[in-house]
Write a structure and sequence with these properties.
Blueprint: H1 18-29, E1 42-43, E2 46-47, H2 54-62, E3 82-84, H3 87-94, E4 99-100, E5 107-111, E6 117-123, E7 129-135
Parallel strand pairs: 3-5
Antiparallel strand pairs: 1-2, 4-7, 5-6, 6-7
Length: 139
């Protein structure tokens, strides 16, 4: 570091308040503290070192090859359990209806028999059904 600035790297979970951390460090050091800059280098499975610049993205789409840069719809959802639904259950979900499943909890991603992401599901309070919270497919 070069006084009066310090550069730090923090590995943290979602919900960590880095601005509060800077303030708290300043309190401990008895000098005050704030952020001059903040750069997120990763979020879930996405990392800055594998990101594309906006100029590159614009260039690829202008050249007609931008589709190769797109991530699948579930690229950032792999922390949630995967529900593989049969045709009848998938049809119910696509109409916004819950599907029965014992011992459910939290949030899950639901797929039709063809392997396409069709919905984001949440367990009901009793843990007896998955309830569609966001339906992504209509057929």
């Amino acid at each position: 570091y070069v006084l009066p600035r310090a550069t730090i790297t923090v590995h943290c979970s979602a919900g960590t308040y880095i601005r509060s951390l800077a303030h708290d460090l300043g309190q401990v050091l008895e000098c005050g503290g704030h952020l001059a800059a903040l750069q997120r280098t990763a979020a879930g499975p996405f990392h800055l070192n594998t990101a594309f610049t906006l100029d590159y993205i614009e260039h690829e789409f202008a050249a007609g090859t931008g589709a190769q840069l797109l991530q699948p719809p579930d690229a950032g959802l792999h922390v949630w359990p995967k529900l593989e639904l049969d045709n009848a259950s998938a049809a119910r979900v696509m109409h916004g209806q819950p599907v029965a499943a014992a011992g459910t909890q939290g949030v899950a991603r639901a797929y039709n028999p063809e392997g396409s992401l069709i919905a984001i599901m949440e367990a009901n309070a009793a843990g007896t059904h998955w309830v569609p919270r966001k339906v992504l497919a209509s057929q």
